[in-house]
Every structure is written in structure tokens, then in C-alpha cells.
Amino acid sequence: MNKYNQLGSVRYNQLGRIKYNSRGAREVKPLFNRLAQARPVILDQNRRRLAILENADNIILEQEINGIDQVTFTLPWKDEKRKYLVNENLVQLVNSIYIIRRVSVKRSGLSPAEIEVYAEALWYDLQFAEPVEHARWESATPEVIMKDILDGTGWRVGKVTITRERTLELEAGFTNRLKALYELPSLFGGELHFNTDTMTVDFTEPVGRKSGAAIAYSKNLEEVEAIYDTEELVTKLYLYGKNNMSIADANDGVPYLTDFSFTDKVRVRVTKDERFTNPYHLKERGEEALKVLARPRSSYVLRAADLSALSGMSHEEFFLGDEVLVYDKELGINVRTRIVSWKYNVIQPWNTELQLESKQPSLSDLLTGIQEGAEFLYSEDAVERDEMLNLHVFNYLMNSRGDDGFNYWTNDGWELDAENGYSGNASFRATAQPGVKKSLRQTIYPAHRDSYSLSLRVATENLRVGNGRVGVYVKFKYQDGTEEEPIWIPLSEDE
């Protein structure tokens, strides 16, 4: 379970004078339409715009599915707009709203002083609303339960795609609204999404948007690690609900489930969830869990670049929950999987850390784990926090795959092949003619690293060079006007 304000020592809005969750909260149109290289916009507690922090730096957005949502950034002390960095003022980042919780001023050595800001998503305040009064639902859908939990908070139910019914009982008068909402993902297997601009809460199946982004391992990367393990493999699962209710009545008198599709070894796990009072619901949930537990687990964590702002390739943009392609030919990794958490570097989107969902057994399956000794089934990322796969998208060219025709290229005699692509659907093609020069050129400005690697995929058919040349010509030019000696990379063994 996710826990917020675990120490219990910090309380916000105790006097009740400030109302964040009023139904009449005004909607503020975002000033930025893309997360990459956006800037924080400061609002007062009534959502009136105060300032755009164009000098903000180190903007890190940390989010996870069914988990945390917070942003941190710094501002130079000499910036006059620091006066707006007041606790409980709001921060708008594109279309998301955060509450400033902590402001600190720091100076290190001879470096100029700066202000550090920590802000939490607006929905964090649901934990400080009045506790849940309606605390028992019998065979209810998520939408019904959510309406009761959000009643009187100023938040409303948004998009709900799950219609399964479950029985849920909480401790009336003692359970805070946020904790109550977070019972739903573990009970129904879906994902919560808070829309802080409209103050609505969505609850949907865990199926992500199919992003066009491809994350590939190449020569310029220093480290790569992928983990495949069977440490938590389970083939026989005993399930118990409230008052030690078993699933026997729903499972032909048998109190356990089995799955020997991967191995015939008997590996037993016993778990209990007091919230289940219906053996049929408990069996259904257990079957979903065993689909994952009975198979080896693959884990990936990676560092990757969002190049959508740098390269102008909108199809390379990705978001939390998106499905992306991860490719490493040498390690045999070629999977489409979802981003389940990230630390997004807004100023330097090429330095973003992602954690990926396991690919098992298909993208549409609910990934469920069972924690030994815990009191309930819970949904997990299936990603180990300390496993790193350091990858970068290696392509700094605009429209490198020909998805957007010849945009960004200077073309002299080349054609577009819309059917024979490699990493995409299209590619560029040239048919040789005696005495005719054909070229395809582009100038790029990748100035944020010390070294680069050139990588390309080439296919030839009946290539005879003769007196001509076929290859790649690379020219480096620096800001001071100096140039490196041009590099010619031949693509024919005849040269």
C-alpha cells in the first residue's frame, strides 16, 4: 500500500480557513502544452495566476501509477519572483496542479543562494478530508464506491471503465478518503488517475496508450542490465477471506488454485485478505494473481531520453502509463511494455529515469503480486527499485525514420519507401544512376554531451560502385567557427 505523510506529524489546513477542494474551484488554462522544457506557473490559493518561473531549474517530476505525484525545483535567490513561493500556494505544471508544501533556502560554499521547493499533487489533501462515513458496500461497482468516498470533498468521479462488482468494508469514522480510494486498485485491479485541473478521479483498466517512442541500446551507452528471476514463483495458491473463508465453495470443494504451465514443481503460498466475503470474488482475484506468479518475472529499469522537444519528432514523446518499445538486439530484448513510474527531468528531458512493467504474459494482463504475511492482495509494479537498465534513445536526427516524408531533410534525388522500414514503417531509398550525384542531408545541434555515436541501418541490392562512391559524410562544426576534418564512412567493400 502507498502511504502518505507516514510520520503523522505534519498537518495542513488544520484551521479549515483554506479550502482547496471546493466545488467551485476555477479551471486555469495551461500556458505550456508540452511537459518537456515547460516552466512552473505559480497560482494563489484561489487559482489566480501570479508568476511564470522562467528561471526555475532542476525541475523533477516524480510519479508512479497508483502512487506518488510530486514535483521539486529550484529558483535563484536573487529572482524577484521568489516572493510568490509561499507555502500552500499552487504550482501549475502544464495541466497539473500541485500545492507548495516545503520551501527552503540553501547556499553551498561560494555558490549563489537558491530556493528549493517541494510540492505535492492537489489530491494529496484528500487524506485530510473528513473520514469516510459510508464504509460498507455489498457487491458494488467501483463507480458506486467512488461516489460515496468523494462525496462532500469537492472531487467528482470521472471516467470509470471497470464494472466488476466487489464487497468492501472499511472502518467507519477512522478511514481517510485517500486511503479508501487506494483500496480500489488492489481490490478491482485497475488504476487511479487524478485530474487536478478538473478535480475528477478516473479509474480504468491498466492498458496504456501505444506511444510511437522506441528506446534502443546503442554503442554510446555505458551499462545495461536486465533481470529475469523465479524467486517469487508460485504454482499452488491457498486463498482465504474474512473469518477464514476459503474459496472451496466456489472451486469444487478445493481451497487452492494451481498453475503448472511453467514448471511441475510445487511451490506453495498461503494468503489472506479480510476484505473478501464472497468466495467467487476471491477466486477470481486469485486466478488473476496466479497468472503472473506462476511464470518467471522480467524486470527493467532504464534511463531514457524524451527527444520530442529536442528533435521535433512528436512520435518520440512518451508519458506515464504509455506503452513503449524497448529494443536491444544483443541481449534479445524486443518488447512492448508500459512505463509504470518515472523521474521526469523537465529541463533536461534526455535525462529521465523510467521504470517498466514486466512483460508477462501480455500487456493487457493485470500484474498482481502476493506479499507473504500481508493482510491483503495488492497490485505491484513488478519492478525492483535497485535494478537499472541504462539506456538512451540514440537518434538525434529529426524525422530519421521517414515517418514525416522529407521534412527536416535536404533531398537531392532520394525517394521515400513507405513499406520497407526498420524501426518504423518507412525508410529512404536511392537508385544509382551513372554520373548523377544523389544526397540526403541534415544539420543537427546536439550540444549537451561530450561524445556521440553514429548508427544507421543500410540495405543494398546489386551494388556496384565502379568510379563512384556510396557512404556517409560527417562534418563537425563548432560555435567558434572551427571545423574538424570531414569523415567519410564507406558503405561498400569496393572503396
Number of E-state strands: 30
Total number of helices:
5
Distance between the termini: 63 Å
> What composes the largest sheet?
14 strands, mixed
Average pLDDT, all residues? 77
Q: Any guess at the CATH architecture of the domain at 1-128? A: Beta Barrel
What fraction strand? 25-35%
CATH fold description of the domain at 1-128: Thrombin, subunit H
- The multimeric state of the shown protein is single chain
Briefly note the structural class of the backbone: mainly beta
Please tell me what the overall shape is: flat
| CATH class division of the domain at 1-128 | Mainly Beta
Q: Any low-confidence stretches, pLDDT <50, length ≥5? A: 1-24, 219-224, 359-394
Query: Fraction of residues in helices?
Result: under 10%
Radius of gyration, rounded? 27 Å
List strands and helices in order, with pairings.
Elements: E1 41-43, E2 49-52, E3 57-64, E4 69-76, E5 90-93, E6 96-106, E7 114-121, E8 136-140, H1 142-150, E9 156-160, E10 166-169, H2 177-181, H3 183-188, E11 191-195, E12 200-204, E13 210-216, E14 227-229, E15 236-240, E16 256-258, E17 268-272, H4 279-293, E18 297-304, H5 308-311, E19 323-328, E20 333-345, E21 352-356, E22 368-369, E23 378-379, E24 389-390, E25 410-412, E26 415-417, E27 427-429, E28 439-441, E29 471-474, E30 487-490
Parallel strand pairs: 9-12, 13-19, 15-17, 18-24
Antiparallel strand pairs: 1-2, 1-5, 3-4, 3-20, 4-7, 5-6, 6-7, 8-10, 11-12, 14-18, 15-16, 18-21, 19-20, 20-21, 22-23, 25-28, 26-27, 29-30
Short description:
By secondary structure, the chain is mostly beta strands.
